[in-house]
Design a protein that fits this description.
The chain is globular. Strands 5-2-6-7 form a 4-stranded parallel beta sheet, with helices on both faces. A two-stranded antiparallel sheet has the order 1-8. Strands 3-4 form a two-stranded antiparallel ribbon. It has about 120 residues and is an alpha/beta fold. About 30% of the residues lie in helices and about 20% in strands. The chain contains 4 helices and 8 strands, in the order E-E-E-E-H-E-E-H-E-H-E-H. A hairpin with a 2-residue loop joins strand 3 and strand 4. Helix 2 crosses helix 4. The structure holds zinc ion. Zinc ion binds next to loops.
Length: about 120
Amino acid sequence: MYQYSGSCNGFVNTLRGQTVTMTGKVVVSGEHVKRENLAKIIKTKGGRFKNDLTGQISLLVHGDLSGQVVTNMKIQFSDKLLDVINQDRRQHHVCVVSSAGFSELLNGGTAKCLHDVVADRASAV
Ligand SMILES: [Zn+2]
């Protein structure tokens, strides 16, 4: 499986300038955050929120997918995670962070990019 990492060094340092989308339930500081609120929070951090994963997206927040309709039940893949792989083929790296990683970013910290984990799981299907 071809993986394109672009300028990503394995970590996401900021939400500033990022175009963000999400999949699954995103939990920040123990609370489930609705998409509308997430969009506002991201805006205050200098980023943008979009509902769909397109070539514009630079960051996917990977929330909890359990209990939701997912494309592949076995590995709990959503369409958006598969889109991340499709963007790879177009040489567009989309960074992926977990809810915990997203919380870190909101607190001014650094989140690990889970892109390769996602790609590895996809190639194992
Ligand atoms: Zn990345």
